[in-house]
Design brief:
Length: about 80
């Protein structure tokens, strides 16, 4: 919705059919760095996207954790979470 302002029906179907064990949602608490996939350097845009991603995870009742902190802390958190699954 953020980019194209609509979601095709086929995409909703795929979202419901795909099943992943767990999701890791990255917080926006580290500085933005440009790369081919990141296109929103403004904190307000990043926060909006974060909340949209979180809302989708909540809407579909997907299990997830929010990962925060430095890169090394994020890695530690992710490993700990995945080891507990």
């Amino acid at each position: 919705l953020y980019y194209y302002h609509r979601i095709d029906d086929w995409l909703e179907t795929v979202i419901k059919e795909r099943s992943y064990d767990y999701y890791l949602l990255m917080d926006i608490d580290i500085p933005w760095e440009p790369d081919p996939l990141r296109d929103r350097p403004e904190p307000a845009d990043r926060l909006k996207l974060f909340h949209l991603f979180k809302e989708e995870l909540d809407t579909h009742q997907f299990p997830y954790s929010i990962i925060k902190g430095t890169e090394s802390k994020r890695l530690e958190q992710a490993i700990k979470i995945l080891d507990s699954l």
